[in-house]
Amino acid sequence: MFAMRMKLNQQIIKKESIQPIYINGKNKGMRFDVQLAYYRGHYLSDIELLEVHIDGKKVSDEAVTFQLNGKELPLYKLKYAVTEFWRQVDLATIQVLCPEGISGSHDIELKLMLRIPYMQIGPGHDFMPLDSGDKVTIKLEGEEDE
């Protein structure tokens, strides 16, 4: 599949924002900020695909949420967010719950595909796909002392 790619930012996944999530003092996941890689913003309903992969393994959609403009949405609700606009300069936060926790070094891949609704490339409803994904290697600290 062909997809347009414009990486306007040095980092789509903001490495300095990556931090563990603690619930009742136990490491239960991580969160990180992302920025669009395109010069225009997009409505969240234009997100065709959003997946998080840790060390090559896809995290279940139910364990991932998307936060923007003070709202936290499960992935399945993004297609209904027709009034929520993600500006290129705004950071969104991806939260990933891992019941077993996550620490140490890992490869994190964000697969993020959007459709550009003003660039029709075929008959019907085929629009230009935009690849706004990224891949980074991270190191997270271990469990906090109880």
Ordered list of secondary-structure elements with their pairings:
Elements: E1 13-23, E2 26-34, E3 42-43, E4 47-54, E5 57-58, E6 64-68, E7 71-74, E8 85-86, E9 92-97, E10 104-120, E11 127-131, E12 134-140
Low-confidence stretches: none
Rg calc: 16 Å
Mean pLDDT: 84
Helices, by number, come to 0
Which geometry do the CA atoms define?
elongated
Strand order of the largest sheet: 1-2-9-6-7
Class derived from helix and strand content:
mainly beta
Please tell me about this protein's structure.
The chain is mainly β and 146 residues long. The chain has strands at residues 13-23, 26-34, 42-43, 47-54, 57-58, 64-68, 71-74, 85-86, 92-97, 104-120, 127-131, 134-140. It has a five-stranded antiparallel sheet with strand order 1-2-9-6-7, with no helix packed on it. A hairpin with a 6-residue loop joins strand 10 (104-120) and strand 11 (127-131). It starts with 12 loop residues before the first strand and ends in a 6-residue tail after the last strand.
Task: List the keywords.
elongated; 5-stranded antiparallel beta sheet; mainly beta; 146 residues
Summarize the structure.
The chain is an all-beta fold and 146 residues long. The protein has strands at 13-23, 26-34, 42-43, 47-54, 57-58, 64-68, 71-74, 85-86, 92-97, 104-120, 127-131, 134-140.
